[in-house]
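Most newcomers find our protein records easier to grasp once they have seen one. Read left to right, the backbone structure tokens trace the chain's path through space. Nothing more is needed to start thinking about how sequence determines fold. An example says more than a description, so a record of this kind follows:
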Amino acid sequence: MSMIRDLRAAVRPSLRKSNAPYNSYDTTRDPSASSAVVDCAVYRDGRRQKADGCQTPHEAMLRVREHGGFAWIGLHEPTEEEFAGIAREFGLHPLAVEDAVHAHQRPKLERYDDTLFTVFKTIHYVEHAELTATSEVVETGEVMCFTGRDFVITVRHGGQGSLRALRHRLQEDPELLAKGPSAVLHSIADHVVDGYIAVAEAVQDDIDEVEIGVFSTPAKGSPRGSDAGRIYQLKREVLEFKRAVSPLLRPMQLLSERPMRLIDPDIQKYFRDVADHLARVQEEVIGFDELLNSILQANLAQATVTQNEDMRKITSWAAIIAVPTMICGVYGMNFDHMPELQWTYGYPMVMGVIGVVCFSIHRTLKRNGWL
């Protein structure tokens, strides 16, 4: 709560105005001195402007206010102190700043005055030689994007989802980058969704592998139903994937359908393509979840069938063994007057009866599939 009060006190509405002076920024607390700022650049007419020496966010915004264009500042896991200076500089809302610092947010799109705050969940597929009951299949991260009239601030959390390659690719397309901050926002959304598509293809391969393992003949010494741990682990990873994809669909639809002052109309058309791709991935992930449910049920059913087969075999052999047990029990009662005990052919007859009856029971049970 103290951090929120400090940030609220730091945010000055006057800085949001186009004619607001930036010389009130405290350069002694410039966040660019921290390792949290991974890149800071000014773009004009779609081209990155050269900076004399180390350019700070404060210096970048001075150049934007003086010569036009927009600033793109990239940060990686900033602390509260590191981000507080940028919050004052750009007039960011304290609630959005709190979300950007602490991460673990649900994908969303929020508007604060003249700033759009967008949260993306990045997904990275973890390569593994063999899927086990403890394998990590997907690794998640986060990218938060503050989009203003003349600035873009990206905050990345996690070891994956670097935007360096995306920035270089955008710099090679000045015509697109000239559209301003909304072009950067679209490129980030497109980059994240493309990552979803690649992960979905890899997860599909894992599901196919598990499905083949469940419905194929088990290896010698490996009982049926032993894949339940792998299936459950994969289902947990798919659920994590689903949490990243599903909540993002509505924000992408809003960006593609609802007119917004901060989104260039030409760029808005491209958000439709991102929303379409995201909808396709969402359908695939929902399908993965349902398919894994079916595979898990089939696996448990196979385990139940195996147990039933074992019980039938045990019952069959118990029925066969019951015949000699019963006959031997009768002749073990030690009565004085039992004619067969004194008969010369009594023993062969009893053994013959036992053999014939046991053979008949065994043949009947085997013909019925119990043995």
The beta strands are 37-44, 47-48, 70-76, 108-112, 115-125, 138-147, 151-157. The chain has eleven helices and seven strands. The CA atoms of residues 93 and 113 lie 9 Å apart.
